[in-house]
Amino acid sequence: MDSSKIFGERRTVEQVEEGHELAPKFDSNGLIPAVATDYASGELLMHGYMNAEALAKTIETGEAHYFSRSRQAIWHKGATSGLKQRVVELRIDDDQDCVWLRVDVTGGASCHVGYRSCFYRTVPFGEQAADASGPLRLEYTETEKVFDPDEVYPGVPNPTKL
Amino acid sequence: MDSSKIFGERRTVEQVEEGHELAPKFDSNGLIPAVATDYASGELLMHGYMNAEALAKTIETGEAHYFSRSRQAIWHKGATSGLKQRVVELRIDDDQDCVWLRVDVTGGASCHVGYRSCFYRTVPFGEQAADASGPLRLEYTETEKVFDPDEVYPGVPNPTKL
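Above: the input entities. Below: the structure tokens describing the complete assembly.
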């Protein structure tokens, strides 16, 4: 699918915010943030980025494609792990600089660490954090991994950067 | 709240991904993306950014603070509009470069255009988009605005950039 055809020009604020034409904004690196939630539970699964090609491929195929910043390449989510994200609904925000994917996940996990969601830890706040004298302590919301990363990604470098 | 105390150092991938210490990663502009969903419905409300101070203030107060890139300033969400976001749960992702806020919204709207969610339009994909010969047509998921932006933000410039 040719992104130059399906993406409109950004001409006015009113057109972008209140119009009917898809006119996404890519940042200075050519990327737009993409947020994936579980269609059934509403749980936030992951936050990634797409370039124009990845967004066009997602629209064409109905399967989530991202742009891997660590590999600098199009990333068909699940191509290695089998844990694909089938798009059920795709939305874009007011100024069209972020997309929201509501997805069904094959295999039930979206996180390279092995959890269902990448967001498997909570941060204390308010009274819970008031007496902190050092780094805040995270609590786990998932106690068991869905898969073993060493089995699913044998020999693949961990994408996390410090 | 002093962010230099409550945020830990990022020493190893294992510590960041599988540990219990809050050690957020801010990008080259000093920002971390922040995603807010409605605590009750799971709906994605907005996608913004925080700097270290905004994240620390969010943790301290339990009310969402962002960093406005257009104004280059801390932005206590709702300070102008009254539409504050009370944090019910705060989570961080595997590599700690994105935070997720599950919030209750005073007034029921999070979008400066006047809608409940910033993501009030769907993008067609798959068969719906297969025959497109021009920019894709967005469909509205919300038909009525919750508030009138001209009344809530009198004289405030629209933050959307082309």
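Note for the figure: The two ends of chain A are 35 Å apart (CA to CA).
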